[in-house]
Design goal:
By secondary structure, this protein is of the alpha/beta class. It is built from 14 helices and 5 strands.
Length: 273
């Protein structure tokens, strides 16, 4: 299974093999970011021949189906838009995706790790090398190697990618809890965080429910924030340990889009021919 997954990934992931790239698809709500990313693709050194723009998040998957890009750049909050990536991966398991933003949370990295072939790139990191470095340099060049890449999908995950929203949420939430436990190393901390704090229960209410001192619960909270490397509890704590699927993300559940999606869904034979 490992050998098959590795070979399929290498065959599908043409950019990493150094083969020419013809198309890129960009999505962002910000026109300046769209313009900057487009220039990054067409700076005189890039291999890209065509840049396609998606102006609505709901159009990303249909645009991928119609235009068959070699790489996709999404200016989104990854943990808030898991349905988008899930729909893309159901259609093309090995399509390289760059997610860009001002900052990334633990949940973003877990989602990238879960689906694989996803790069988390800060705006500044992506654009600071212009015009010397192109978009493909960020994927190929050794100097850009690092933990921002999601790597290969986990063994067995491809067979578990869900078209059902509830099952997907359960799978991703389980993965978040497992990865946080490996990070923090405390079953009790994991219990307090996932069973109470990320559900919006205050530290005082948690201490009363668990019949523990509030100082102990605040200690767990600080310990969790250190493990997650976040400073702002109100802004980042719950988003760091939760994922969302917005109604507009569920492309495969819309009848018209589902018909389009199923009729174009790539088989392994088509993908690697």
């Amino acid at each position: 299974m490992f050998l098959l997954l590795t070979l399929n990934g290498l065959m599908g992931f043409r950019i990493m093999l150094g083969k020419p790239v013809g198309k890129v698809l960009i999505y962002s709500l910000s026109w300046p970011i769209i313009h900057a990313l487009s220039e990054l693709c067409n700076n005189g050194k890039s291999e890209y021949q065509t840049v396609h723009i998606s102006y609505h998040l709901s159009d990303v998957l249909p645009d991928i189906i119609r235009n068959a890009p070699d790489i996709v750049v999404l200016d989104i909050s990854l943990h808030d838009n898991c349905g988008v990536v899930n729909a893309i991966r159901l259609y093309h398991p090995y399509l390289p995706v760059i997610v860009t933003g001002n900052y990334f949370l633990f949940s973003d990295r877990v989602v990238a790790e879960y689906y694989g072939y996803i790069w988390l790139k800060l705006y500044d990191a992506l654009l600071s090398g212009y015009p010397e470095f192109t978009l493909t340099d960020h994927l190929r060049a050794v100097c850009f190697a690092g933990t921002e890449s999601g790597g290969n999908p986990q063994i067995g995950v491809i067979d578990r990618w869900e078209e059902n929203t509830a099952s997907l949420m359960i799978d991703l939430s389980t993965q978040l809890r497992r990865r946080f436990y490996h990070l923090a190393g405390s079953p009790r901390l994991c219990e307090v965080v996932f069973d109470w704090l990320i559900k919006g229960v205050s530290s005082m209410q948690t201490s009363q429910s668990l019949e523990r001192s509030s100082k102990v619960i605040y200690h767990y909270r600080r310990q969790a924030m250190r493990s997650l490397q976040i400073k702002y509890f109100n802004r980042d704590f719950i988003p760091s340990l939760t994922v969302r699927i917005k109604p507009g993300d569920k492309f495969q559940e819309d009848d018209n889009r589902n018909e389009l999606y199923q009729s174009h869904r790539m088989t392994d034979k088509e993908m690697y021919s």
